[in-house]
Design brief:
5-stranded mixed beta sheet, rod-shaped, alpha/beta, Immunoglobulin-like, 7 helices, 3-stranded mixed beta sheet, 232 residues
């Protein structure tokens, strides 16, 4: 009967693991309470729990199919110590129950029968943070980020040739400011002591032409003079 119980739980664990991504399944541990004896008074659950480390994300399995003992979860250590069943936070009724350890802290489980609880059928565990799962989640995020930034899947470890940095070209020297040559002194080509040439030439003077009356008197005077010479 014990072997049958173990095989049933093992099958359930295998099926559950197949539905979990590989990097998460590696960080999850499955704990079968009481091992082959299961959830039973004959199981030394205090000793069984002391040799195990329970972490966030792990699962614990309760097999009650043989003992028919009920299972109750309590909130406080006082209720656990006194087997107080008046205010349970959860009751598990199936023959095989999986309980997920989804947070840090203490968990308290006892039998639903106060008599069995007082005989030792109860379990107290401390759940620790799962550093391995956190690292796997970070690796998963890092891998997804790398895949997103490197869609072609190139290997980062490949040797990448060193590309020399371009040498900056020297800055051109500033040209000196352009200076205009000094203006040359203009010296007019004028001969010294030479009178300036007139702008307009002087009008030509022509003697007056003698009138016809003057010519008559002159001719008459010439005849008189000639006559005198003849008389003499």
């Amino acid at each position: 009967m014990a072997g049958q119980k173990t095989s049933n739980i093992a099958l359930a664990i295998v099926l559950l693991s197949m539905a979990i991504p590989g990097h998460m399944a590696a960080a999850i541990h499955h704990h079968v309470v009481g091992d082959d004896k299961g959830w039973d008074i004959s199981s030394d659950l205090a000793t069984w729990a002391s040799g195990r480390v329970f972490k966030v994300g792990d699962n614990i399995w309760f097999d009650k199919t043989a003992s028919q003992e009920s299972l109750v979860e309590l909130e406080s250590v006082n209720e656990f110590s006194s087997c107080d069943l008046t205010n349970p936070i959860k009751m598990y009724t199936e023959g095989i129950n999986k309980v997920s350890l989804d947070g840090e802290g203490s968990r308290y489980f006892i039998s639903g029968d106060s008599g069995s609880c007082k005989k030792g059928l109860k379990l107290h565990i401390n759940v620790h943070p799962n550093k391995e799962e956190e690292n796997n989640e970070e690796d998963g995020i890092s891998t997804e980020y790398k895949d997103a930034t490197n869609p072609h899947g190139s290997n980062e470890d490949e040797d990448i040739p060193d590309v020399p940095e371009p040498t900056p070209s020297p800055k051109p020297k500033p040209k000196p400011p352009h200076k205009a040559p000094p203006p040359e002194e203009f010296e007019p080509d004028v001969a010294p002591d030479s009178p300036p040439e007139p702008i307009f030439p002087p009008p030509e003077f022509s003697p007056p032409t003698p009138s016809s009356s003057t010519l008559v008197y002159g001719h008459f005077f010439a005849m008189v003079v000639a006559g005198c010479w003849i008389v003499i």
